[in-house]
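Lecture notes, structural biology module. Today: joint structure prediction for complexes of two components.
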Amino acid sequence: MSVKAANREAFERLRRARPMWTTVRLAREALGLPPMTLLHAGPPIAWERMCGPMRGAIVAHILYEGWAASVEDAQALAASGDVAFAPCHSRGAVGPMTGVISPSLPVIVVEDRVNGATACSYIGEGSGVQAKFGGFTPEVIGRLRWIRDVLAPAFEMALERDGPLDLRDLMAQALAMGDEMHMRNAAATCLQIKALAAPLAAATDASTLEAILTFMTRENDQFFLTWAMAAAKAAARAIDGLPGCTVVSAMARNGVEFGIRVAGLGDRWFTAPAPVVDGSFFPGFGAADANPDIGDSAIMETWGLGGMAMAASAAVLRIVGGASFADARETTRRMAEICVDVNPAFAIGALDWEGTPTGIDIRRVVETGIVPAINTAIAHRQFGVGRMIGAGIGTPPLQPFVDALVAFGESVPR
Amino acid sequence: MSVKAANREAFERLRRARPMWTTVRLAREALGLPPMTLLHAGPPIAWERMCGPMRGAIVAHILYEGWAASVEDAQALAASGDVAFAPCHSRGAVGPMTGVISPSLPVIVVEDRVNGATACSYIGEGSGVQAKFGGFTPEVIGRLRWIRDVLAPAFEMALERDGPLDLRDLMAQALAMGDEMHMRNAAATCLQIKALAAPLAAATDASTLEAILTFMTRENDQFFLTWAMAAAKAAARAIDGLPGCTVVSAMARNGVEFGIRVAGLGDRWFTAPAPVVDGSFFPGFGAADANPDIGDSAIMETWGLGGMAMAASAAVLRIVGGASFADARETTRRMAEICVDVNPAFAIGALDWEGTPTGIDIRRVVETGIVPAINTAIAHRQFGVGRMIGAGIGTPPLQPFVDALVAFGESVPR
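The predicted structure, tokenised, for the full assembly:
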């Protein structure tokens, strides 16, 4: 198969994908996570090289799992070599920001009913100090337990009662409602609440339901993000290992390095230092507080959303600090230059329902010098803070795309 | 005060308006509706001249009120002169389509906390055969009773518990999510469900809650419309009777006539035959089945939404049958030619957050020959069908604007 044919096949798999949210399970069960193992965002990284927020999230999850009882002990355990670390992507999972997943964390399970892949992500924690931003206060740990003991079982029962939720359909609607699905999931979150409210009412008692609905509805406009990410990862898994294919199958950051994987090159990572995100900051914070780019959430751009779909979302410009709506349209048009095709399943109203550019071809990235535009949140860099401090547009380094193309060239049999 | 100053004052009142949904009451109480009185959409009209769907809605409400027990008796009663008919607008109410409101129908009560006016509308019935489209089957009457006995009290309790709902804020968000608030209220309905879900869970038992959430969430994307209309009417009431003002304070259709009221001319109607709506029809229906334009919903355009805000909603073009998104932007720009100013409270993302054209000046309409573009649903014309059969863009006749301007000229003291 020619590269062109392989890339067309990759695009078709990405286009046809139909990820359904089927259930919620503990990570040990859904991902086969061994004891004393923690997953994290981005390419592989050892404890010693981890950034502040990721170390914080590791501590949070060691406390949550009960492997240690104090922050100091948790740090000592993490440094001892007794805890194994691996990328979420190594097990078909994705996590925004630090992306830490521990064995008894509940994960949402998403199955692509067309291509057959499964992917998982966790349930977002709302706003304020969060484990995913590296927070480890008692409130953070308590909220993780509430998610495990109350929210996750309710979701599981609601899905059992009402059947799986069609995420592609929901995301297509949300795209027509001003979300680009990475930094704006306000419409998708509303649609998710709309879809779940009645089944949740049937599946649980009134006071639990009130607590769940309050959690889902108050200051939590990004609640749907991890569902969007699990859907995108399920879609992207369908191209993992596709021979002769130069389409990107993952882009992710661990807060120190930015890395990509390419369909035809399997699970090999190509990395470079993570960029600092050009963004707008919450009051009281600035670029000096910003951790370099972090999180698996660039899986959204891998599936043609986020920065690729900028023209769908005038509203996201206010969040990531873009200029005019004409620039947003221009971003989407520029992204089309590095993608295989546009995906009609994700149509943009303001472009007269043209699809989103999908299937990033590393050859085109290297040829044009255009790198994917990645919308993203910005984490505070300091250990123990555990907060989002802004959002912006990440510009990944070109080098991993160049390195991957060189490796691809070397991999072709002669 | 000059006309220019009066119109600026009218615009400022429309801009400042902050309608809040405060409660639900029976119409007899909220609107002081006397016994044996029915309100209807549009300018005044007698039973003899009413169109098929409006007669059907009158029958539905006579049955609902128990004033007659059969369709034949209800028609005889309506023709007897023993039932009084008056426009919704005569009592600060608005109703989409036939707009029929009877004394024991629950109405949502909206108060503009800035200008001080109150307005009411009813609670939508969902999809299928509906009283508001002229249906009067036992299912329709049963649903009206369920709304009165179950839904309305639950809403009342939720609002009592959680305080009033800020409709302007919700509508501004929905506008950024692809609604134009007349023929597309999909985002607003989601936002409404999001706002109400937790307080409803606290206010009612689980099975009632499930029934309510199912009703609000299933095939009911226009659920919010009557809230938008009540909000717009509350805002528009602030300019009723403003001396020297040539801004339109109401546009409404009774299915036979299209009529307008003008702020400086009080409650006087200027009418002409209602146009046939240029629209797209549901499968199996066509222009021959269409009733002429009907409903008070053009109050949305009176407040700068609906057709005025076309550029906010690529999605509505699919519903009303528009062409390209460029045309939608052009419609909004054209509407700006007949309005006093643009309202920053309702900002359109695709126009880089320019506000919606607001405050239709009859002088500019007559000067330019540009009439307001009105997005609207289309009712089946036949008595007893009671269904929506399509949607489109209504082009009102110019004559009422001309007549109103002549009357305005005559009203000015010399």
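Point to remember: The mean pLDDT of chain A is 96.
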